Amino acid sequence: MFTDKAKKRRHTRRAVSISRVMALVFLGLILTGTLLLCLPAASRSGRSAGLMTSLFTATSATCVTGLVPRDTWTQWSAFGQVVLLCMIQIGGLGFMSAASMAYLLFRRRISIQKQMVMAEAMGANSMGDVVRMQKKLLIRAFAIEGAGALILMLRFLPEYGAGKAAWLGLFHAVSAFCNAGFDILGFRGAGTSLMTYQTDPVICLTLAALIILGGLGFLVWDEVIRQRDPRKWSVYTRLVLITSGALLACGTLLFCLTEWSNPLTIGNMTVPQKLLAAFFQSCTLRTAGFAAVDQGLLSQSGKAISLFMMLIGGSSGSTAGGLKTVTFVVLLMFLWNRMRGRHTVSVFQRTISNDHVLNAIMIFIVMVGLAFTGAVVVCATSRVDLTDALFETMSAIGTVGLTTGVTPQLQLPGQLLIILFMYFGRVGVLTISVGFLKNKPAGQKYKYANTDLLIG
């Protein structure tokens, strides 16, 4: 029989090991990608891109961020682009999905420990559901990417021919669904991303649909498909769908209000084109990273809204990063209830535990604190404006990938900081969440006397 202390030690070690596995596997993927991108064959020029450029790009691809020091099409050869696409796919669907697929292909049993790692990363509640979820996840993910790739290929076909159109369609469909934001449209202008297609409804709406589906989360898909009656959906699924819809609508409206008359962004477009550009901006800010307008030319209010949207991000268990939609809602409900003098947070006739509320507050403080601290470091080392530096750090932590144009200007300290932020945004928040789920609070042996403070 194990004593209570022994059980707690085993419990803590298990949580630490799960977090460590997640961090080390992503690190291994990044280092492997770096080595492959360092090869001369990966560069269009036939010369090695160098360690820092390769490391920065590999981290961005694996962590599905999209920040790049050099234009993807201009820098990387066909081989380099294939390497990037593989890293995006693995990083987007998650190493847990890739591992599960390998075990399924070889007809091997998935151990309980490996199931736990995958379950936590996916947000699964039942260990027995992991294999079933993995099969459905992979089939549906590939089906969605395939449908998006086909639509994009047909759109590109008249311009570029079958071969190039197929590659463009596949690359951008995977990049959009995985919320990576990488594009290979640099042949139309280095660093222009989707700006040359900003008024094309087929491309913009297809990519937007892929971004939204990728950012909802695997559990939400599964429940919506299984349970057609919305009244029977879980509280989590209802919160994700309502919050995601509200953020898309509010983002579109706010972007229209701030940029409607800005000739440098959407001011010279027709009304339908403005609405399309505003909707796509609202989608891409939620961790996708495709730029249909020049982010550096946004108004100051437009940049402020962008920072807020990048912080929120997508939903848990999805290809997206950021604070997460439900975490954001929990924070809002907590503030609303506290202002009304209530000590509990409830939604849909269910009470949210104080532990969940405190965890949401902690993640919020950590992300905002890191973003502001990092912005100061970037300003000091790379000589960029504070707003642009904050845009860069928030984009990295939220794994968004949008930039006001300062990424190529970053000096070595700034590059290393952004690399760390991209890694933390993808792995750090996830492992912190696993720690919340697996660790029980340590009991205090004593408590100090209360004191009164003036707050506010």
Q: Which terms summarize this structure?
A:
456 residues; mainly alpha; two-stranded antiparallel sheet; 17 helices; 2 strands; globular
Notes on the structure:
With 456 residues, the chain is an all-alpha fold. A hairpin with a 2-residue loop joins strand 1 and strand 2. The model is unreliable at 99-108 (pLDDT under 50). The protein is globular and about 70 Å long. The protein has helices at residues 4-38, 51-62, 72-75, 78-93, 95-105, 112-122, 130-160, 162-177, 201-216, 218-226, 235-259, 271-284, 300-312, 325-339, 354-382, 386-397, 412-438; strands at residues 345-347, 350-352. Helix content is 65%, strand content 1%. The protein has one domain. It has 17 helices and two strands. Helix 5 packs across helix 7 (130-160), helix 14 (325-339) crosses helix 15 and helix 15 packs antiparallel against helix 17 (412-438). Strands 1-2 form a two-stranded antiparallel ribbon.
Number of domains: 1
- SSE arrangement, N to C: HHHHHHHHHHHHHHEEHHH
Count of strand segments? 2
Distance between the termini: 51 Å
Describe the global form.
Answer: globular
- Can you count the helices? 17
What's the average pLDDT?
Answer: 83
Q: Estimate the helix proportion, in percent.
A: 55-70%
Query: In terms of structural class, how would the helical and strand content be classed?
Result: mainly alpha
Low-confidence stretches: 99-108
Give the neighbour order of strands across the main sheet: 1-2
Largest sheet: 2 strands, antiparallel
How large a portion of the residues is in β-strands, by DSSP E?
under 5%
Radius of gyration over alpha carbons? 22 Å
